[in-house]
């Protein structure tokens, strides 16, 4: 249950991303700075955390030994995840982005065949391609149906441009984030903790953010003080707290596709948190009856995921009582 709890707490802090990014867009800020500033601000905080734990040197040793995997998968997991998310915020409200983002629950499950696991056989240990956990995928579909109900009433009010610009980039991000996260877990092989991995991926993705920042400076100019402050809040809440908690949760269940799917399914709670934050923060309208019904399905789906993962790993009773 602990990985599930960490995932839900991470979802709460991740929800700040959708609301703050939308708030920045509404106040005239560019998605380019919303994306890049988050990772620039994350660096000193993560350095402080990892430095206090005296784990910076082992991280740098590992990064020097595997430079290309660190660079490539960090750009995928962070760059191709967050830049499209911020771009989408320019075309759609926070609730639409948060709702569409839940497709990552299915995206992460469908990525299973791209990974291998070590299996003990009579002839020794060999690598076997992982299979899609169909039961977990079915429960994930229940969550997505709930999200669809939440978005149904609002989606009728959107233009084609808002739908395409607000949904397609998020679909790209939904595959990039779990792919980069899981591939980096393979590269690290359990030698680095979640704090080190987040710092390493942030540093390795900086070339991507540097290029985007230069492009932003040339096209839209410098960010405003308001956007700097809000980006700092996103960096703290989502970039540091939420990412570290989520990576800790996935580290605890790595190698088990069903439990990993359950942890990733906790991110569906972002929709619930985002709706509440938009109502309180941006004075958005209260959800309709259909939206509340959708939220109910999301919660039920999360409970099922938690139950399945707990049942699979519950200790089996011994065939004979121990004397």
UniProtKB/TrEMBL annotation:
<dbReference type="InterPro" id="IPR037185">
    <property type="entry name" value="EmrE-like"/>
</dbReference>
<dbReference type="Pfam" id="PF13536">
    <property type="entry name" value="EmrE"/>
</dbReference>
<feature type="transmembrane region" description="Helical">
    <location>
        <begin position="31"/>
        <end position="50"/>
    </location>
</feature>
<protein>
    <submittedName>
        <fullName>Multidrug resistance efflux transporter</fullName>
    </submittedName>
</protein>
<feature type="transmembrane region" description="Helical">
    <location>
        <begin position="158"/>
        <end position="177"/>
    </location>
</feature>
<keyword id="KW-1133">Transmembrane helix</keyword>
<dbReference type="InterPro" id="IPR032713">
    <property type="entry name" value="EmrE"/>
</dbReference>
<keyword id="KW-0812">Transmembrane</keyword>
<feature type="transmembrane region" description="Helical">
    <location>
        <begin position="132"/>
        <end position="152"/>
    </location>
</feature>
<feature type="transmembrane region" description="Helical">
    <location>
        <begin position="96"/>
        <end position="116"/>
    </location>
</feature>
<feature type="transmembrane region" description="Helical">
    <location>
        <begin position="198"/>
        <end position="216"/>
    </location>
</feature>
<feature type="transmembrane region" description="Helical">
    <location>
        <begin position="70"/>
        <end position="90"/>
    </location>
</feature>
<keyword id="KW-0472">Membrane</keyword>
<feature type="transmembrane region" description="Helical">
    <location>
        <begin position="289"/>
        <end position="308"/>
    </location>
</feature>
<feature type="transmembrane region" description="Helical">
    <location>
        <begin position="228"/>
        <end position="248"/>
    </location>
</feature>
